[in-house]
Amino acid sequence: MTSDLATLPPSPLDAWPPVWAPAAVIFDCDGLLVDTEGHWVSLQDQYLARHGASLDAVTRRAITGRAAEVVVVTIAEAVGKDPMQVGTELMEEHRRTIGDTMAPLPGAVETLRAIAAVRPVAVASNSPRDMLETKLVDLGIADIVDAAISLDDVEAPKPAPDMYVAAARELGAEPADCLGFEDSETGADAALAAGLQLIVVPSIPGQDPRGPRRLHSLADPVLSAWIAGWESPR
Questions:
Q1: Phi-psi map region of 80: left, alpha, beta (phi>0 left; psi -120 to 50 alpha)
Q2: What 3-state DSSP class applies to 179?
Q3: Cα dihedral sign, 139-180-190-63
Q4: 184 near 208, Cβ under 8 Å?
Q5: What is the pTM of this model?
Q6: Is 124 helix (H, G, I), strand (E, B) or coil?
Q7: For residue 147, what are the β-bridge partners?
Q8: What tens digit of pLDDT does each residue of 49-97 get?
């Protein structure tokens, strides 16, 4: 994974605001719409600490945003336990405590709703389907999302492009005509591999996702003004 933007091809997002408008928009969920990724990382670190272990910064960076089984195997190796046991213990605690951190990140719901009023919208997440559906309901956006693609819906999770390709297909658009929003290096690599135009909004310390446009927040005023100027095909 790299933040080197020199390798990225020219993008309509190179201008800000762009003169381009997408045919459809695909959002990540954890760490972009809601701070559940931060909660998940913290839970992992607490679990490691209880077992007298930790992850080095390179490993932590590499597994952030990855599917749960990748995270679980890495942590199981660090603590010297069976991955099945570690997975059960971590996911049970995650499901039990995830509601404690279900507040949306700044501008997330407002931006998604503004886009959904004029464009088809999907959420593509490395979460299992039951957890993704719970998050969408708790955020109050399940009724406005046209498609939700989870870990269970594709052959390969992020950083493979499958999830974004599937989401674009569900929205009836070509990936190159879609705008993606991501916060992690894993997710950004998936979106770029699928051919999306990408805006990255990092929220987890140590993550440096690459994309043609980077914002500090989904509450960015230029982003809001750009979306407001899109003509509605809906």
A1: left
A2: strand
A3: negative
A4: no
A5: 0.84
A6: strand
A7: 122
A8: 999 999 999 999 889 888 888 999 999 999 999 999 998 999 888 888 7
